[in-house]
Each structure stands twice: as C-alpha cells, then as structure tokens.
From TrEMBL, chains A, B:
GO BP annotations, alphabetical order: alpha-amino acid metabolic process
Cofactor: pyridoxal 5'-phosphate
Domain called Aminotransferase class I/classII large: residue spans: 51-385
Pfam family, one: Aminotran_1_2
Gene3D superfamilies, A to Z: Aspartate Aminotransferase, domain 1, Type I PLP-dependent aspartate aminotransferase-like (Major domain)
Subunit structure: Homodimer.
The protein, known as: Aminotransferase, class I/II
Keyword annotations: Aminotransferase, Pyridoxal phosphate, Transferase
Statement: the UniProt record of this protein carries the keyword Membrane: no
Organism: Megasphaera hutchinsoni
Record-level Gene Ontology MF annotations: pyridoxal phosphate binding; transaminase activity
Length: 397, 397
C-alpha cells in the first residue's frame, strides 16, 4: 500500500506524545493549552441546549450551509467590532471546526510545495503542522520581547518578498511566548507588508484574555487593503469541545475557503453553531470572559512570582499580559527535551520549545501553561521545576 | 494574491448552486440527500443532552483526543458487528466530522497529483470533490444494474492495476444510482482486487436503510487482507447536523489518518460524539432505524410506482432496494442540466447526472431523492416532472 508524499511526511506530534504522558491526575501539567474546565458555563449550557431544540427544532440537527449559521455569523460580526475593533459583515465570515481547521484550509488555499511562508520564531506548533502538509519552506522572522523585529522583516522581504505566499502571526499573547506586539510595531509591520500582496494570517484565539496593560488594535482593524485574514475562536472564551471558530477574510479569499470546506467536511456542526449562538443571545459572553480574565490573571501572576522566587537566575521567562502561556529560556547548551524525563519523574510537565521553531534548533526553551491548574498546584509545580533547573544549571558550571 | 494550484482548480459545486435554488418552500425538491426531519428523535435528544452534561460534566465540552471518544468507538465496534458483519475493535476506528471528512482525509493520505483512482461510473459527487483536491486521474469502471462489472474491472486492472492508488465504491444503495451489488459480484470484485495492494474505500452511509431484499455482506466483512477501509455515518440513521461519522481501517492506515486529522482540525466535537454515544446507550438505535426503513420504504415504493405510471416509456429508472435515491435515464441526446430551468419553472427540482461522472459526459441522467418529501408531494412532484419529460421526449421525434 503506497501512501502519498504528504502522508509519508507525517510524524507524531511531540506535544501529542507528551500530553499522553501527562493525563495521569498526579502530574502537575503545565503542558497543554487547556482552558480551566471549572469555569465552563455548564449550567448555562443546559439551558442553551433546551433553547436550541425548543426554538430551532429539527433545523438545529439537519444539514446546513458550508459557510455556517447566519445568525451566529451576524453575532460574530458584532463581536468583531466590540472586541477586536474590526468592521465586518456576516458575508466576510465563515464558521470553521476550530481555528485549526482555519489554518489547514488556508494552507491548502494558498500553498503549493516549496512555497515560502513567513512565521514568527518561535510560533504555534499547530500552525506549523497545518502548513507543513503542503510542504512549504518556512522562513523564521526574528522576534524580540515586542514581537517581530521590523528591521529583520525588512531584510527578509528585500530578499524573498516576491516569493512569499503567506505570513502567519500571533500578535496578541503569542503561543508559545506570551508576547504582545505594541501598536508601533504593528504599524511598522503593516507598512512593510503592505508593499507586497501576500496575505497576512492573524491568529487571535486569546485576544480577549488580557490581564493588564492597554488593549492594542488588532492587525485586521488596522488593515486597509483586505490583506489580513483574522482567525477567532470560542475555544478559549467559551468551550473548546464544541469546535466552533471563525475566519474573517476578504470575500475573494472566503469564496475559495468555502468551496474547499465543502469538499473537506461539508459544514461544521449545525447543533454546536447554535449552541454558540444561543449562548451569546441568552447570556453575556463578555461578562463570562471578564470572570476568566480575573482567574487566569491571578494564576499568571502567581506563576510569574513563583518562578521569580524559585527559578535560578540563569533562567529567564516572559511576563505575558494575557493569554495562556509563558516562555522559559534556559542557558545555551541546555536541552528542554532531554530534561523532560527528569521533570516527569517529579510529576511535572511542560512542552519543550524545539518543535515551535520551524527549522529546528533552539532546544533551550520550554512553554508553561498557567490557565489549567489551581493556585496550590501552580506553586508546587513551579517549585519542583525549579529543583530540576537548579541541578541542571549547576552541571553547566 | 496568489492562490495554490488546488484553490485555482476549485469550482462551485453544481449541486450546491442548485440546492440554493431549491430551498424555497414552494419547490418540491427531490434534489438533496436530506433525511426526513420529521423523524429526527428530538425529544430523545433533549434527554440525551441532559445526560451528557449530568454524567460527563465538563469533560463533555473540553478538548479531547483526535481519534475520538473511546466509549463511542467501542459502541461503534459493536454496531459494525451487528449491522455490517464486521469484526473490529475500537483501535481500528476513528471518529470523523461526517463521512465527507473521511473521504478528504483518505484523499490526502493516499493521493498525489496524477495518481490513478478507480471509481464507479457514475459515483458520489462529494467523493469526486474530495479526491479532486489532490489532482488525481480518475478511471471510471463501467457498471450495470448489479454494480461494477468484474470483466470490465479486470481489463482496467490488467492495464492500470500497478498504478492504482485508491479505489472508491458504494456497493450498497449507491449514490446516485440506488444500485446494490449482489454477493457474487462482491466476491468476484474482491478476488480481482486482492491481487493488488491498493486500498478499497467502501462508503456505506445507507447500508442500514434496506426496504426489501436480502441483506448482503459488506466488502469489509469479506475482506481478509485488511485492504478495505469502511466509512459509516450517523447522518442518515440518526442526525446529520451533529457531523459524527466513523472510519474503520487497518491500524497502519489509521495511524496516518489520525496524525493528519490532528493537523486538519485537532478532533471532532467532543459534545456531539457524546450525544451519539448517549443516544446509543439510552435508546435503541436499531428500532429507530426500523421506523425510518418503514417510512422511507413506503416513499420509495410510492415514487417508483408514480414514475412507472406517469413517466414516458422512453425514460427508465432504477428500483433501489434501500437508501435514498433513484436514478433516471433519459433517451440519448437529452440533457438533464439543460432541462433544469423548465423543471424549476414547475417548482420541482432534481440533481442533473453529469457531475456524478468523473470524466464528464452522460448528461442524460438525473438523481431523485425520495426520503425528504411527504407522500402527496412525491406524487405531485413526479407528475410535474412527467409533464416536462413528455414534452421533451416528444421533441426528439
């Protein structure tokens, strides 16, 4: 039996294998990107489910359109205005089965083998997986603590700009680094890329989860050319298991995406789309987000302060203003993947940083998630991590 | 902005455009493939939704595994034995977002550009769309009223067998023809393909909807080599809008499919999978199917008898023993696509047959669906169709 080139290149995700190890309840896992289940609005969902079937009846479980449930797309258009400063209509929105599907659809719509994709370095592993299916070449744009460095991007564009087919960025609470681009960076970025006609994919699943600092306008809200494609999601602000997310794009792009989605899975769940819609109609999703912000913000601060107190001074880490992750940098020469068994022995888990770099290397980092652990386990887990780090740093001397 | 080769080749589905026209309530539509909503178990679903949240709580809406909810896969393994005669375990099953996703995943796993795919002629349009994304060459295997003709397949295999990368078949109540392969055809088929190592994709969304005649063993149940991949679905026997279907395949194949699905959409809806599982646990799905069989069988018979009474004798059509469709053949020279406006003028709709043929031609067919219209509209719709047919046939003379 012969597999396709694509299938022959598929490898097990390192994260996936690690997450399997970390599902035992005794492990303090900072590895996943899971929202905290204790804040899922379960009681509200029970009422939502009844409303969906009482009000929409059989239409709620019948086949429906590929682009998605119109009233939900209209609600999302309002939400794009109030939460992301983006003026758009339902016609510019398609519902996807999670943002991961948005990534894979756009990968298929824009990329052929050996095409050039620009990404932050590091960047979201799941996006690299989706793009990799088409076999492109990744060029990693260097970043600092404020995101992509305009001068570095400029150099890359001078050399490769004409061949770039897609650029993927997470300007808000980036996965994996937790970094946010300040406004001046965003403006400088757009000024550079506007000279080219490749699409910018702005992935923003965490944008509403800001714990401090000023809200910064999304790239999509600053885009005057229709060059930015925006991915938003209910996974982090409502419920990940429904698999309801959305894409905002120029209608010419959306037309391709809709036709592709029809061949790929016909449509996303009719029922789940209405669960999201009725939740937004019956309850105040912004108030729910506000509660999440309060809890996650405390956890973020607790993890940061505990790391500051216990981690050896040779180890640095980011201070995320929002989102789910902080990014830890070990001294050069240390390897977070090799350190994993020692960490797991202490019943703690993280995600090693290597796989977040499209072209390898950079193994002296790991990602920590703070949204999914209660306070006492955050403190205990960070202390255990600190023990391993101290031992390992000592070996370097 | 440059699109990929794949995106440049995307065209609007003819069916999709037609279905848009036929959503007005005054149209008697035989065009879709919709199950009858009046038999959706809505009251049961209300109880199921409560049970999902009461019993599984937050896990029912959290992220979960790519392969799908284990208890559901175990239930499906039992169902595969009782309904399709297939011995398999949960480890051989992945949950997909509808069978359409199964088709597109397998397309990516097996096909590169210009690879050879064997299909029935005609065959399911949605499968052609999914395979077409990889740019393969289709070879249409001639069929008669008993399905694929072994002698014709033999000839094709002699010439192309070594280059075939995938064969797609619907042996049970085929879409679009309604034809079922008898046992001896299935055996002859397997004897031929067993000499090669390409996978056979058996798509069986309607297999449980048999109205008369003897149940025939599925290809998967007769397969001793692990060559057959089976696609089953809840869309026609439970609820299409949940988008829950399954694939049964050899673990080597499934491993590729799981890794690909992770990059494509991470997982299918956690909640919808549990809706299907709890429905199967709390209610008797076979009893529900039995009710559907009774109603759809009557509609099938009514449509067939009405066509027999009113259609001009130059027009022929199939007698489906199950499933959702009958296939109408017009005299050579007639064109069902060109006839569409006249039919729509009479407020009736069908799907023209041309798009079901991978390599074009064969425009003198159309597909009728009988599951989604009540008795009186079936009779009225067929009569109106008959009027157009008589006029058009008369023109040929």
């Amino acid at each position: 039996m012969k597999f396709s080139k694509l299938a022959s290149g598929l490898k097990a995700s390192e994260i996936r294998e690690i997450l399997k190890l970390t599902t035992q309840p005794e492990i303090i896992s900072f590895a996943g990107g899971l929202p905290a289940p204790e804040f899922f609005p379960i009681e509200e969902l029970k009422k939502v489910d009844v409303a969906v079937l009482e009000k929409d009846g059989r239409a709620a479980v019948q086949y429906s359109t590929t682009e998605g449930y119109l009233p939900l797309r209209e609600k999302i258009a309002e939400h794009m205005k109030s939460s992301f400063g983006v003026d758009c209509t339902a016609e510019e929105i398609i519902i996807t089965s999670g943002s991961q599907q948005g990534l894979s659809l756009l990968s298929q719509v824009f990329l052929d083998a050996d095409d050039v994709v620009l990404v932050e370095s590091p960047t979201y592993l799941g996006a690299l997986n989706a793009f990799s299916l088409q076999g492109p070449k990744f060029i990693a744009v260097p970043t600092d603590e404020k995101g992509i460095i305009p001068e570095e991007l400029d150099k890359i564009l001078q050399e490769h700009g004409k061949n770039v087919r897609l650029m993927y960025v997470i300007p808000e609470f980036q996965n994996p680094t937790g970094i946010t681009w300040p406004l001046e960076r965003r403006k400088a970025f757009l000024k550079l890329v506007e000279q080219y006609d490749f699409p910018i994919l702005e992935d923003d699943p965490y944008g509403e989860l800001r714990y401090d600092g000023e809200k910064v306008p999304s790239l999509k809200s600053l885009d005057t050319k229709g060059q930015v494609i925006f991915l938003g999601s209910f996974s982090k602000i409502f419920l990940p298991g429904l698999r309801v997310a959305w894409m905002v794009a120029d209608p010419v792009i959306l037309d391709k995406v809709i036709k592709l989605k029809q061949a790929v899975d016909l449509q996303s769940s009719t029922f789940a789309q209405r669960q999201a819609y009725y939740y937004m109609t019956m309850y105040d999703i912004d108030a729910h987000v506000k509660n999440l912000v309060e809890v996650y913000g405390k956890r973020r601060t607790l993890m940061y302060n505990t790391m500051k107190e216990y981690f050896p001074k040779e180890v640095s880490f980011t201070y995320p203003e929002g989102g789910l992750f902080t990014w830890v940098t070990l001294p050069e020469g240390m390897d977070a993947t090799e350190m994993m068994p020692k960490v797991l022995e202490k019943k703690v888990a993280y995600v090693p940083g290597g796989p977040f770099y499209p072209n390898g290397g950079h193994r002296n980092h790991f990602r920590l998630n703070y949204s999914n652990m209660p306070d006492d386990r955050i403190v205990e887990g960070v202390k255990r991590l600190a023990e391993v780090l101290k031992e390992e740093v000592a070996k370097l001397k």
